Structure formats: C-alpha cells, structure tokens
C-alpha cells in the first residue's frame, strides 16, 4: 500500500520536457497531491528542464494555471503557495553539455549535499537516449551517497528492435535497476485491484481456468478522438499506442499465475512468463485473428496523411499456450471515437454442464459473468441466475455489484501518476515494466504490424464516430459463438 513506504528524507525530481502538457496536466497535480497528503520526502525540490525560456516564477505560474484548469478539485491556494516554493526551472537543450552543467549547478545549490534524484523523461521519445547519455557524460547518473533513478515515459520503442536499442542506450549509463518504464494503466487503482480480487480471495481463483471460463474480453474504449496528437498518432496507430502496453499489461494481470509474493520481481516474473506464452499470430494469419478500423473523419485531422492507413481501432483474438488457458479465446479491443469511454475485463464462465430446470421455448441460459470495471465506473460486477419469485422454475440473470465510490467514498481514487510517482520516489518497481516484459509485448505485436502492412492485412474498415467500431469485430467473436459484452457502467 502506498502509505506504507518509508520514503527518502531528501529528494529531487528533475523533469525533462517540463514545459509540456504531461507536466502541467498530470505530473505536477500528482506531486502536489502527494505533498498535501504528506507523502513526499521531508525536503524535496522539483526542477523543470526544457527548451522554453521560463524563469522560476513564470514556471510556477504556468503550473498553477494547469492545476486550476486540470485538477481544480484538489487545488488549495495556501498549500499551493507552500508547494510552489519547491519548484524551479532551468532552461536548456537536451543535447547541450553546457546546459547540463547549469542544471547540475542549480541542483547542487538546492540539494546542499546528497539527495536522492529521480529524473523524469517527459519528452518526445527521440530524446530518451540523448538525455541519458548527457546525464552520464555530466556525471549525473551515479552517486555514491544517493540514488539516481530514471523514469521513462511511453512509448518505449516502436517495435522490438527499437525497444532493445533504447534499452541498450539507457544501459550504457543506467543499470536496469535504476530504470522505471511507465505504463500509467498499472497505476490505476482498479488495475491493481485485479491482483487483490484474484489472489486475496479463494472463490475466483478456483474457477480461473479453461475448465470453467469460456472466454475473456478486454475492452479499452475511448470516446475521444486523436485530437491534437495526430502527428504522433498517425505514426503509432492503435496497436502501438494502446495494445503493446496497456491492453497486454491488463491481460498479463488477469491471466498470469499467482506470484509467490507481492515483491516487484515476483509479480513482474509472472507477467513476463504470461506474455511469453501468448501464441504468436503470424503475419499471414492476421486477417483470421484481427480486425482494424479507422473512424470517419480521421484523415481530416491536421497532421494526418490524406490516404493514411493508420488504424484507430483494433480487435484481436489470441490464445495463451499454457495449461491454465489452453483453448480459451481472449478477445482484446480498443479504439478512439467510440460510443463510450469504458475499460473493462469481462470473464464469461461456461454454462452449467447439465441444466435440471426447464427453459421456456427459445430461452437460452445466460452464463455467469464477472466484470472487472477499470474505468470510469470503478468496481466489480458479477452476473448470476436467480429464481424469479412466485414462479415454479423461472430464472433471470441478476447483478451483484461493488463500486469504489459507494464503498470508499467519492474522492478516494487517486490519479495513476500519483501512485506511480510515489512508488518511484520510494524505489518500488512493482508497477513499472521491466525490459523483458516490454520485449515480450513487442514480440507479439510486431508480426501483427507486419501482417497489417502486407497484402494479408484485413481490410481497414471505416467506422462511424460514436459507434462500437467495425462490424467485422462482432463477426470475429460470432465465429466462436460469442459476442462482445460490457456490463460496467450499466447499473441495475
Ligand atoms: C495513452 C495513449 O497512453 O493512454 C492515449 O497514448 C490514450 O492515446 C490514453 O488516450 C488513455 O489513458 P486514460 O488514462 O485516459 O484511459
């Protein structure tokens, strides 16, 4: 639990790319909340480093505006004033040694001796190796008296080869033990709750296998379109932007074997093993197991090529080759500009092997469904059959629901970045992906990408905004006698 970390006594967070969106929207609100909860080290400083020529004062004002705009519910003027005194800014270029000397000089005055440092790379990915090398050359990557940690934002590579290259470049300067690769989905409370639901309860794990489960569906649907990120998105597309990281991480948590402890590597070992057991989809088979789509009007967005073939929607059927899951289809789907924002892991159990109750003509028994609702309706739903009162043998599916809001109160769920920053400052790597985890994920995604840019690709279907994506995604499940289901957000 977050509040159980001891935390360092003196620390500095250095944010590279600090004038950008992520810092203003996510990182500073998260650090401010930690400060208000008294979860930052007793002495800390936050130093921004980027191209923009901010003074300390201008940087503070820029961040205050962000706080008021993006995290107004947590803004409190007096607390902000005291927090803002710890914010500093050094203008500089990511590739200029002199600017690192200026940064180091500033840090030396603030730290007044040894302080643990967390370098946060909130920049475009092409700068990740550049900054690591410059930190190494400036002697800022190691210290005998304190820790030096590096947080790297996504995307981590654009395929297996580039992810490996990036890891190698970082390893020239930082040990793997110093590197924290962010996947912010792992910081979401409800993603962590998957572990608790599965391994702190007896009931679910008993049936969590091929004998009892008919299929598993993971949906990460977004209502937003690509907005102002089209320049990046048109290169990345849905598989790189959402599947390689977020969806495969959710899959790993939902399907992995029980870790031997709650220690970072015990959990990460099991996730890596699970990712390694996914049956590869060969490039020539992509049309059998995947669907791709692009929402209507995507090509009109500034920064998108007029004939762009980039998919903004994908559905994938995959199998896991181990004893637990042999033969159970896992269906993953994600897309932009869809009907609803919903992230859900839905587990559909098998129907009873023999039904002693009479069914009305045409009536089918509906199977039990367990839904892990990741967002926005955080909780767990369980659907089962109940007898309709005052009938002889009629039944109807009913829902048992747990909602975080109802049980723990409205304000309890912190933003994912708050948890991740807190863990990184405390040196806890449980929620960060290791290099072998990233590589296994790319190993699965790369052949699909290859197939998608070959003649074997499934057609790129155009889908209407506010829909559920291309019809072919329904067909993919229908072939197996299943259909996409969503139960979260649909309260009884
Ligand atoms: C990011 C993707 O990693 O996750 C975005 O790059 C996506 O395209 C976002 O919108 C979704 O995150 P969340 O937390 O809003 O569900």
Please name the defining characteristics of this protein.
single chain, 492 residues, alpha/beta, 9-stranded mixed β-sheet, 6-stranded parallel β-sheet, 15 helices, 15 strands, globular, binds 6-O-phosphono-beta-D-glucopyranose
- Mean of residue pLDDT values: 94
Radius of gyration (CA) equals 24 Å
Number of strands: 15
Classification by helices and strands: alpha/beta
Bound molecules: 6-O-phosphono-beta-D-glucopyranose
Shape: globular
The profile of the biggest β sheet is: 9 strands, mixed
Strand order of the main beta sheet, please?
A: 14-13-12-11-7-10-9-8-15
Short synopsis of the structure:
By secondary structure, the protein is of the alpha/beta class.
Describe the structure.
There is one protein chain. The chain is an alpha/beta fold and 492 residues long. The protein has 15 helices and 15 strands. A hairpin with a 7-residue loop joins strand 13 and strand 14. The relative contact order is 0.14.
What's the arrangement of secondary structure elements?
Elements: E1 10-16, H1 21-36, E2 43-50, H2 56-70, H3 77-84, E3 87-91, H4 97-111, E4 116-121, H5 128-137, E5 148-152, H6 160-171, E6 179-181, H7 189-199, H8 203-206, E7 213-221, H9 230-255, H10 264-276, H11 286-289, E8 290-295, E9 313-318, E10 330-335, E11 342-349, E12 369-375, E13 379-387, E14 395-403, H12 404-408, H13 416-426, H14 435-452, E15 460-463, H15 471-478
Helix pairs in contact: 1-2, 1-13, 6-14, 9-10, 9-14, 10-14
The protein binds 6-O-phosphono-beta-D-glucopyranose (BG6).
């Amino acid at each position: 639990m977050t509040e159980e970390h001891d935390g360092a006594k003196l620390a500095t967070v250095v944010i590279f790319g600090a004038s950008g969106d992520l810092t203003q929207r996510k990182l500073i609100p998260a650090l401010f909340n930690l400060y208000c909860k008294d979860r930052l080290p007793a002495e800390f400083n936050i130093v921004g480093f980027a191209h923009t020529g901010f003074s300390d004062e201008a940087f503070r004002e820029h961040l205050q505006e962000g706080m008021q705009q993006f995290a107004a519910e947590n803004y409190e003027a007096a607390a902000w004033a005291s927090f803002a005194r710890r914010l500093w800014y050094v203008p500089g270029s990511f590739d200029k040694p002199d600017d690192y000397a200026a940064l180091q000089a500033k840090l030396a005055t603030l730290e007044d001796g040894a302080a643990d440092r967390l370098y946060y790379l909130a920049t475009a990915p092409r700068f990740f190796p550049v900054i690591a090398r410059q930190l190494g050359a400036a002697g800022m990557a190691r210290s005998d008296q304190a820790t030096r940690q590096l947080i790297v934002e996504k995307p981590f590579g654009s395929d297996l080869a580039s992810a490996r290259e990036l890891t190698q470049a970082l390893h020239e300067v930082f040990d793997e033990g110093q590197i924290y690769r962010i996947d912010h989905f792992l910081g979401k409370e409800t993603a962590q709750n998957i572990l608790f639901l599965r391994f702190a309860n007896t009931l679910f794990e008993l049936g969590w296998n091929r004998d009892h489960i008919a299929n598993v569906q993971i949906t990460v649907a977004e209502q937003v379109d690509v907005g102002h990120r089209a320049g990046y998105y048109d290169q990345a597309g849905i598989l790189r932007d959402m599947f390689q990281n977020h969806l495969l991480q959710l899959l790993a948590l939902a399907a992995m074997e029980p870790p031997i402890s709650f220690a970072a590597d015990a959990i990460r070992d099991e996730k890596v093993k699970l990712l390694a057991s996914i049956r590869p989809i060969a490039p020539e088979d992509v049309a059998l197991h995947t669907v791709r789509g692009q929402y209507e009007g995507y090509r009109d967005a500034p920064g998108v090529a007029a004939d762009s073939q980039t998919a903004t929607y994908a559905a994938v059927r995959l199998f896991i080759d181990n004893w637990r899951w042999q033969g159970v289809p896992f269906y993953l789907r994600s897309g932009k500009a869809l009907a609803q924002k919903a992230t859900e892991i839905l587990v559909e159990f098998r129907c009873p092997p023999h039904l002693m109750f009479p069914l009305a003509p045409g009536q089918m028994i509906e199977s039990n469904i367990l839904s892990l609702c990741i967002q926005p309706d955080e909780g767990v739903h369980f659907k089962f059959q109940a007898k309709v009162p005052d009938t002889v043998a009629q039944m109807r599916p009913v829902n048992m629901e747990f909602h975080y809001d109802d049980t723990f109160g409205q304000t309890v769920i912190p933003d994912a970045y708050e948890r991740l920053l807190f863990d990184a400052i405390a040196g806890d790597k449980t929620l960060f992906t290791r290099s072998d985890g990233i590589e296994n994920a790319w190993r699965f995604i790369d052949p699909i990408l290859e197939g998608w840019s070959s003649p074997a690709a499934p057609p790129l279907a155009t889908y209407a905004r506010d829909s559920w994506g291309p019809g072919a995604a329904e067909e993919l499940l229908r072939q197996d006698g299943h259909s996409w289901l969503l139960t979260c957000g649909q309260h009884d």
